[in-house]
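User: Fold both of these, please.

Assistant: Here is the first one.
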Amino acid sequence: MSKHLIGLTLIDAPHSALNNAGAEASQATENIVVVKKLQKGRNTYPYVSGQAWRNWWRTTLEQEFDDWKSSPIKREKKIAFTAADPVTYDDDDVFGYMRAQSEMQGKKKVNVTVTRLSPLKCSPLISIAPQIPTNDFGVMARQEGDPVPYEHQFYACVLQGIFSLNLGAVGAFSDINKTGYKNIAASYVKTIQDEGGTQESENSPWILPKDIRVRRARQTLEALPLLSGGAKLTSHLTDVTPKLIILSVLNGGNHPFMNLVVEQDGVGQLSLAALREVIEDYADRFCDSIYIGRRNGFMDELHAELSEFAGDTSLPCSVVYDSPNKVIAQLAQKLDGHIGDSP
């Protein structure tokens, strides 16, 4: 069973418009930009799409780590694709790809579609509590003549999201001729072999050397305290790094941290009772400590409870409580022990 790095993160968005949906047909004026939001019953919840969050993550890795290689994007007619080269390009490995290509098999040209399910998975970032976005009125008045009015929306909320990184899948590529499993074409095997990749048996995935796999997993985690991105930053600058984060390594692909933050009276609350239950129920599957990081100034009322929780020796797993940057750094350095020479 593959080990997964799992995490829950809270992002403080006190005056933000991080992901816009463009113009809304129902609006009275055409010159308005609305934020992405979803409805649950009568309540409205602003959100950031999973695609946008992944884009912040990918861009941060490219900008902050000199040895991180991002795959070039090519476009043909109405489709765009990456190089689908997970040996050369780190983001093709971690973020996945799909590309239709052809290769010569003997004297015959054969269509070969390669796909790679992203080892890094994430949810949308969704407001914990209902929030009706505010319409802000502005004008463009620097030109001669009448000013041009426009409107846009923004919100004040705490966004919650979860993510998972399949540590066994990082740097591991299958060439099985089956939909969803054909990560590489047969002709690509030599590229992996030239980089020191190995295969345990005929149907096993090809595995890159451990140092490459560990570096890619570490940097993916270490990018979180450096995240930047979002729409409307010129007038709604928002820090999108985690203000509260819970991390661990788990055997299996489920995500027990999903329901730890609940709404109470319109405010998001971390349920330590729910966290305790998760730790007790999955104690035999957790492969490391439970890491809790909280930024001072955010949910300060939790400090005493989290300090006491981390010191509770009756828990079946140890709990580490510190700042988000410090717990991320601690777990990143331990990933070497969770990534073996094979998945």
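And the second sequence with its predicted structure:
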Amino acid sequence: MDNMNSTPLSVEIFQMEHVLGSVEKNLEVIIRSINGSHSDLLVFPEMFLSGYTLGKDTFKTAMDADDAMFQPVLDAARKNRKFLIFGFPERSERIRGQIHNSAMIIGPDGLIGVYRKMHLVDFGPFEEYAYFTPGVEPFMFEANGFKIGMMICYDIFFPELVKQYALNGADAVICISASPSVTRTFFESLMKARAIESTVYFIYSNLVGFDSKMDFWGGGAIIGPRGNSVSKGPYYEEARITGILEDAEIRRARSVRPTLRDTKPHISDLLCSWGKGER
């Protein structure tokens, strides 16, 4: 069904320094931010709740999505009528001992769900496969009439994920990230490309500050569906980055460059057949 929403969605990216390993202090930052924000949707980076470079401490820091510690956050979101996203290490619901690099999605009426990072990083300084199990499912939710797809960091390198979100009705895609300074050029190129090729708003929230082993550059951004910059955060310092999502802008982008209409999903199947000699 076509989304006939006409009410803008206000978004606020919280580019705040976290305390490595201190879930309690980082939760306090989230709750204060909820209580002090005038935006509809609040976004925190990948692994904000615990910090990214925990190493073996990842296993003992991991938590369940329904842990009682989240109740004050749920209460604050409900009281202030907010949508909220933040990254955390999550114990697997299915297999004891496994952990996911996850994003929690909360709404005014409680927990909406959890997205688990599907593409883990195991090259350069990254060692995610030593601690995490990849997720297997995409995740979409709705906020004030806007359909939004979720991804985490390295997921951005796989354009098929954003394209499939868009083909299934997404108006925006949120990428929470823990990108260190050496990867900044790649991410700034890709977030704009993902927005343009799928005519979606692209919302990027990155860690900022030094986290034991890595220096994170921040640079949170909201990019419009035609590749225009809605708002952009500074590098290497705390900031609150705000922007407005408008359905008129999405409709305009898709009328002047109808990439979703012109997408040929069957091409991947044809190429797979071609590679197997089934021509």
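Residues 147 and 169 are 7 Å apart (CA to CA).
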